[in-house]
Amino acid sequence: MAQSVFAGKRIVIGVCGSIAAFKVAGWVSELAKEEALVSVVMTASAREFITPLTFAALSGNDVHTGMFDAGKEDVMAHINIGRDADVILVAPATANLMARLAIGMADDLLTTTLLASRAGVLICPAMNPRMYDHPATRRNLRTLKELGYVIIDPESGMMACKEEGEGRLAEWDTVREYLAKSLSAQDLQGQRVLVTAGPTREPLDPARFLSNRSSGKMGYALARAAFRRGAEVILVSGPTTLPCPPGVTREMVQTALEMRERVLAHAEGCSVIVKAAAVADYRPETLHEHKVKKENIEKELVLEKNPDILFELGKQKKSGQVLVGFAAESKNLAEEGLKKLRKKNLDLIAVNDIGGDRTGFEAETNQLLLISRSGTETLPFTSKAHTADLLWDRIVALL
Ligand code: CTP
């Protein structure tokens, strides 16, 4: 499997005084497990909620607290901490911290470190919904964005103060993805990409449908990786229980016809289209409004052909647009893949061996055979996440 994007990276985490500080202890632990070199800077109020010892134990490093703790702290700590950082994460970021940062104050170790560093800074606000919604906080957020800070929006939900609304610290999966993005090559920056994923469902009646074994994992991994590499990502997804990858715009569809409609609506504006979805080739000719009783079900189901979305995309492909298809095959992989590459006017096709349980449908791992106009290549057997990155490497080379 591939090495973690965090391994050996210097990540500074600034912790402010909010009850959500305890969640960040878990994040530090996760990053340390992935071999990141984590340094924590705590404000005075943060220390009212959680002790420096917790972060020291989890990060394996001294925790920085005061500007003037001579002897204990490096006297140039406010300069040194941020100087070598690969990225700085402020979490939880209070309204107070954001206000101070927005006007360039440097009145404690964290704000001074932020001002003295040239590393990218990610800010995760967490506060009461009314504080978050206050015009002053809103203005400060705008200012921080203008200054180049990346804001990871808080979530909506029930708060520790028993109020409901926007202001809950972002989830780790989202923060992890933004951190990974800040440490990754932005080789898809400026590209708008369209990824399709999952199966489609072709209903027969309100209870029954025709579908296939696609889980959506490969397409979702592709969407996630594209966001991390700087793309604007639209994911058109068939039914799956997978959560929307952070930073990705997702549109859920059910049937092949719905998928076609959404895909064609976006295709024109996208420089790359990757069709990982397993689209049902046929749908029942008749859709019954009410559940068909078993004694009335016809033994032979009459089917109607669905449009081949990828074929249509190949026909209308603009110059410079990269069109990537998938092929689900259980035999003659290279031959079938090449046929589809030509027939559908693709730049690249990723052939999935769906014969076993370690590749293709539902598996966490995959091994793709790639066929392009210039030849074939077998990717290593690896996780779908790593496979996604390897596939994007090849697509970037085609752009
Ligand atoms: N595809 C599509 N619309 C369809 C069927 C397939 O856009 N109605 C796309 C898939 O998203 C995939 C590629 O075409 O990128 C190949 O899909 P696959 O199911 O492997 O092949 P088919 O063209 O359906 O041919 P067959 O089922 O005969 O192998």
CATH class category of the largest domain: Alpha Beta
Q: Which distinct ligands sit in these coordinates?
A: cytidine-5'-triphosphate
Strand order of the largest sheet: 13-12-9-14-17-18-20-21
How far apart are the first and last residues' alpha carbons, in Å? 26 Å
The appropriate CATH architecture of the largest domain is 3-Layer(aba) Sandwich
Low-confidence residue ranges: none
- Our Rg estimate from Cα atoms comes to 25 Å
- Backbone structural class: alpha/beta
**Tally of distinct domains:** 2
Considering DSSP H and I runs of 4 or more, what fraction of the residues is helical? 25-40%
Helices and strands in order:
Layout: E1 10-15, H1 21-33, E2 37-42, H2 46-49, H3 52-59, E3 63-64, H4 77-83, E4 87-93, H5 95-102, H6 109-116, E5 120-125, H7 129-133, H8 135-146, E6 150-151, E7 155-158, E8 164-168, H9 172-182, E9 192-197, E10 202-203, E11 209-210, H10 217-228, E12 232-237, E13 249-252, H11 256-267, E14 272-275, E15 282-284, E16 303-305, H12 309-315, E17 322-329, H13 333-343, E18 348-353, E19 365-366, E20 368-372, E21 375-378, E22 382-383, H14 384-398
Parallel strand pairs: 1-2, 1-4, 2-3, 4-5, 5-6, 9-12, 9-14, 12-13, 14-17, 17-18
Antiparallel strand pairs: 7-8, 10-11, 15-16, 18-20, 19-22, 20-21
